[in-house]
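A brief tutorial aside. Many learners find it easier to grasp structure tokens once they have seen a single protein encoded end to end. The record that follows does exactly this for Kinesin-like protein. Read the sequence first, then the structure, and try to relate runs of similar tokens to stretches of the chain.
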Amino acid sequence: MSYNHQQYLSCLHVGQPVNIQRSNGRIHQAMIKKINHTVQTITVEWEEKNEGKGKEVDLDAIIKINPDLFTTITNAGSRAGAISHDISTDHEDNSTTIDHNNATHPNRRTHKKDEKRQSHSLSQSRTGRISTINEVSPQRQQNASTDPIKSKVVKEIERIAANREQRRVKHEKHRRKLSEVDHSIPAWEFQAMINEYRQQLGMKYITMNEQQKDLRITVCVRKRPITKKELNKKDIDVLTIPNKDHVVIHLPKVKLDLAKYIDNQTFRFDYSMHELCDNELVYHFTAQPLVRSLFQGCNPLVFAYGQTGSGKTYTMGGDLSQRDVDFSKGIYALTANDIFHHLNNSQHRGQYDVYCTFFEIYCTKVFDLFNDKKRLRVLEDHKNLVQVVGKKEERVETVHDVMSLIRRGMSVRTSGTTSANEHSSRSHAVFQITLKKKNTTKEYGKISLIDLAGSERGRDTQTNDKVTLMEGAQINKSLLTLKECIRALGRNAEHIPFRGSTLTKVLRDSFIGEKCKVCMIAMVSPGSSDVDHTLNTLRYADRVKELNVDELKQRGVELHQKHTHDDLHTADEDDYDDDVDEDEFLNESSTQVIPPSHTHLSKPHPQQHNLSKSLLKSQQSKRKFEQAIARSHELEDLTLESHHGYIDEFPQMLASHQTIFDSSTLMNYDREKYAKQLIHLIDSQQQHLTKLRNKALQMREAVAHENLCAKDLTFK
């Protein structure tokens, strides 16, 4: 008779040793690790040659090889069979007796009496057996109602059918999602993949209720909304801000078999601002904590970094798109408002005077935006402190005074037109608010708010104009030096390379000292046409902070994502400076991906070899041009410094000439002494003029070499 398999499974438990048969026929012992009651299988594990192995075995095979484990069930089955046999035998004997009585006693009354007597005696003699039958009967009914045992083939067919149904449901959902995408966009397939990816994320944006972080180096990434211009170009949004500290960029790519997919790279920063965040929220987590350190005697630094058109000036200065420019919502004005709020407290009331300076750094030159863009000199004094000589400081007493100064400075800031932006900021704007103790000239604290120039590469401006190329080279050089200074600050390095650019020279006070604090606001564009620039900006910010996603995951910080092509970006891989165009080959690479299994077999195509050779030549020309620019600017500074020194000494020389000449007006003056003094004065002047002339000649040669390199420079 067949019994319910659940009875057999009840005889087994996890950790019990059982015998199993291998595919080669060998039988050995294993340990039960899991019992699956649904499909009636047992998962076992064993150790073989110091290696742990496992297998899933059907219940039938376990029963066949281990009959001794199920003796209780088989014995019960044997007893039930014996009882059933006895009952059937007694029933047959009873039937035979009744038939015999019917045959020998045809009288009806006698037949009824005998029947009653036999029934009574049968009930007395078979009471025990009938009760046993009643006990066994429910078990037989349960066995009759259970499903028959399914073979492996039937189970496999059912599993395949269930998987087929799941695939149908999945394909139907995918088809409905594709119908929701605008198919007029050329990259609608990528857009559908990105939408599907975002639906798997649990979005949790940053709010004002989040706690501020007191960090030495803070990195905040802000995503701007996609513009109408980008929508008209059929751009798609390739940037996702899933929570308060993660950024995911989706790189559309095509394989060699033309299969499209997205490469998702994840970055983690201190703060991540989505496109709906306003300037007040950005200020709350970036500049506001640094204002408190200003009243502790620190020199904090806040700067906005990103490509042209990513929203740097909007974040720092305010909304410039309207006719009546509103500067009240920029970080400049919000910082000033917060500073005066602290000054009105009883703790600081009447103790400090507030001064503002506003200048721009164009290439290597510094111009005062408060003094008709007068050129300023950046010098080091006898204490090795960097001084911006000649800058104009404006004392302010209200926020309205600060707003007026910002408006005045922004109106004369240098800007240009590139393919990236019609009103591109081509200079670094440095707005500084300084606190000084009452009746003193010594600075107590100074906060520097910087709107950096656009970080796009010179090749991306689509021009061979020498001025534009020179601007891009100097901008990238200063950004690279700024990054290295911040990284050295984060490592507590003894040497800070602030002399690498004019920008870092001016900001030297923000990198020296134990209380220095720096905040970077990385502005990124969401459009697919700017995906390279966005990736470079995120990598720049990642190297500034040097937050490794893999290390953070080991600490328990994870971003839940389930996409097939996820690729977490780390700062250790591809450690090149593409943010300042240090490696053009990676930026020029094709979007097609070569499978790793074929990379060592394929030979370079002649056309690809020629392209690489052309890129190498262009890269060498570009580096040569950058070196020529650096040399010409260095000689320019030396020449201007010498010329300025000669002009400063000129009044003294005139006085010397006047003194010698006045001696000749005497009645009996010494003519020999007069001639000797005049010759000595002329020789002294001649030496100064000769040195100045030689420097001017070197400067002219350097500028000529720079022009020659600019002509040789070509962009593909």
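Self-check: The chain has five domains: 5-65, 71-145, 152-180, 205-597, 612-712. If you spotted this yourself, you are ready for the next section.
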